[in-house]
Design brief:
By secondary structure, this protein is α/β, with parallel strands linked by helices. It folds into 4 domains: 2-112, Roll (Ubiquitin-like (UB roll)); 133-189, 2-Layer Sandwich (Alpha-Beta Plaits); 200-244, no CATH class; 272-434, FAD/NAD(P)-binding domain, CATH 3.50.50.60. It has helices at residues 23-29, 83-99, 104-112, 133-142, 174-178, 186-189, 231-235, 240-244, 294-301, 343-357, 377-386, 438-445, 484-519, and strands at residues 5-10, 13-18, 53-58, 61-66, 76-79, 148-150, 157-159, 211-212, 224-225, 266-268, 272-274, 291-293, 320-327, 362-367, 390-393, 396-402, 405-412, 417-423, 425-430, 432-434, 472-474. The strands form 7 sheets. The protein has a 5-stranded mixed sheet, with helices on both faces. Strands 12-19-13-14-15 form a 5-stranded parallel sheet. Strand 16 and strand 17 form a beta hairpin. Helix 2 runs antiparallel to helix 3 (104-112) and helix 9 (294-301) packs parallel to helix 10. The longest helix is centred in the C-terminal third of the chain and has 36 residues, at 484-519. The radius of gyration is 32 Å and the shape is globular. The N and C termini lie far apart (69 Å). The model has no long low-confidence stretch (mean pLDDT 93).
Length: 520
């Protein structure tokens, strides 16, 4: 009904809003920014920071109100940046900044208002300015009520009831996530171990939320909800994402759907699993944080990775780096007697990147043999060695810690003696393994497998992408270890064979149909 709509003027802009809309919401809808440090659209307005104070003019009277919790019930005029408002706002900013001098968000806000230094004595080491966001998130959204604002006056702080950890806390991290200054940590309010979610695409080097895009160029390239950890699905709580999503794209009622389709050809391109380096405990993977796999180094060196392309381990730049070839390849003990083909060249590339990104880095590569088999590979290998990267022929026997350095012990087979090379970072060139579910896929599709666990082709020379089952073709590393160019070539060949098969089936169907018409 039109009686529910009220005319309001904000900074000279007229608009119609529904009754009880807050001034902050009306201003935001008009594109007028009002600063606030304690407001969140899914939480009850609190008015703690008072930065959102505005001047309301009504019937010739003027007064200051907090816009986040002032409901519009009559026609009013609002000034969000009048002289009186700005004077009070700057005072509030100075007071908050003095309370929390190390809070970056307050420093940024102060400088935007031309304040370079608060006039009041700062409180050293303080980060909490009592916005109450964490408490309201825990109480209103999560429903745990494990933390609250305690004490009074200048002693007021965020804490746990009676200063005791509560079993009500589920260590979800919502309080830490919403805190704008980093004043609260999950470990401050519970003795339960937080379980951070890690992004698989970044090899667990970067965290993620419950809503995330699995990897770049994902198909479809849209965010997904992790139902196993989402509070809405696990505890029937939260629902923040649905409340704040502008286009209303969140639908909690959607279910996974399995679709059966009839096809004329199948291309198997299930890929591979990287070798799990924890199966080689002598190398210390999983025990020492500065022993990583080749895939992890790849993400560190990538501009889109967790460190934006800066190679950092434990917050510092490594100056001595050792690469180890053939981890999980050509190894009878691990049941992988084959060469993974890609390790030699991706290690050469990564050594080149480390040399390029880290000035003065000392880089050593331990190898059994260098198999630079592809077009231009030998020339690139020669280029990397010419850059000053040391290649030592020998398979390391162990990696251990000495003081603050890793020590890589190996026998240099060209020198005929044992060597020990210190390192700040060790990168293990892990090999290619058949996927864990290969046997299951082979049974489902009726495929044969080779002795090494990969899918077997019909003939290695005459039918390299065919299988013994008509209409099923292989592409990529599900058939054997191979690099990107070989994978692309095989994928095109498999697609061509599938087209041939579909054409044959189509002709047979057309012939059968014509024969049926003739008999009719």
């Amino acid at each position: 009904m039109m009686n529910d709509w009220i005319k309001i003027t904000i900074d000279g802009h007229e608009t119609m809003v529904r009754q009880d809309t807050t001034i902050l919401k009306a201003a935001t809808d008009l594109g007028i920014e009002i600063p606030t440090l304690c407001h969140h659209p899914v939480l009850e307005p609190y008015g703690a920071c008072r930065l959102c104070t505005v001047e309301v003019l009504q019937k010739g009277r003027s007064r200051l109100v907090t816009s986040c919790n002032y409901p519009i019930r009559n026609e009013i005029e609002v000034q969000t940046a009048s002289e009186q408002v700005l004077r009070g706002r700057k005072m509030i900013i100075e007071l908050l900044w003095a309370r929390c001098p190390e809070a970056r968000v307050l420093e940024t806000l102060a400088r935007s208002y031309g304040i370079t230094k608060p006039r009041f004595e700062p409180r050293e080491g303080e980060l909490c300015y009592l916005c109450g966001l964490c408490v309201r998130m825990c109480n209103e959204i999560v429903g745990a009520k494990a933390i609250s604002l305690i004490q009074r006056g200048v002693e007021r702080e965020v804490g746990t009831p009676f200063y005791q950890f509560s079993e009500a806390c589920i260590a979800c991290g919502a309080c830490e996530f919403i805190c704008p200054t980093g004043a609260i940590k999950v470990t401050d309010v519970t003795d339960k171990e937080p379980r951070p979610l890690l992004l698989d695409f970044d090899m667990g080097l970067r965290g993620r939320g419950n809503i995330y895009i699995p990897f770049p160029q994902a198909v479809p390239n849209v965010p997904v909800i992790d139902r196993e950890h989402c509070l809405h699905f696990q505890a029937d709580a939260c629902g923040v994402c649905q409340a704040v999503c502008p286009p209303g794209a969140i639908d909690y009622e959607q279910e996974d759907e399995f679709v059966d389709v009839e096809v004329g050809a199948v291309i198997v391109a299930t890929g591979f699993d990287p070798f799990d380096a924890t199966h080689k405990p002598e190398f210390g993977y999983g025990r020492y944080p500065n022993v990583i796999s080749g895939l992890e180094f790849e993400r560190l060196a990538s501009a889109s990775g967790p460190t934006q392309g800066k190679i950092r381990i434990n917050g510092s730049e490594p100056k001595e780096i050792v690469f180890v070839h053939c981890v999980g390849s050509r190894d009878k003990l691990e049941g992988a007697e084959y060469c993974s083909r890609i390790c030699c060249m991706y290690t050469a590339k990564q050594a080149h990147l480390a040399h390029d990104k880290i000035e003065g880095a000392k880089i050593t590569v331990f190898y059994m043999d260098v198999r630079a088999f592809g077009k231009g590979f030998e020339e690139f290998y020669d280029r990397v060695r010419a850059e000053g990267i040391t290649y030592r022929r020998g398979n390391p026997s162990e990696i251990y810690k000495r003081a603050d350095k890793l020590i890589v012990r190996a026998e240099d087979t060209l020198l005929g003696r044992t060597v020990e090379v210190p390192a700040d970072l060790v990168v293990l060139a892990t090999g290619v393994q058949p996927r864990e579910d290969s046997a299951q896929v082979a049974t489902m599709l009726g495929l044969e497998m080779s002795e090494d666990g990969f899918f077997a082709e019909a003939h290695p020379e005459l039918r390299p992408v065919d299988t013994q089952r008509q209409g099923v073709y292989l592409a990529g590393t599900c058939q054997s270890p191979k690099d990107i160019p070989d994978t692309v070539a095989q994928a095109k060949a498999a697609a061509a064979r599938a087209i041939v098969e579909l054409s044959r089936v189509k002709r047979e169907l057309q012939t059968t149909a014509k024969q049926g018409e003739g008999r009719g």
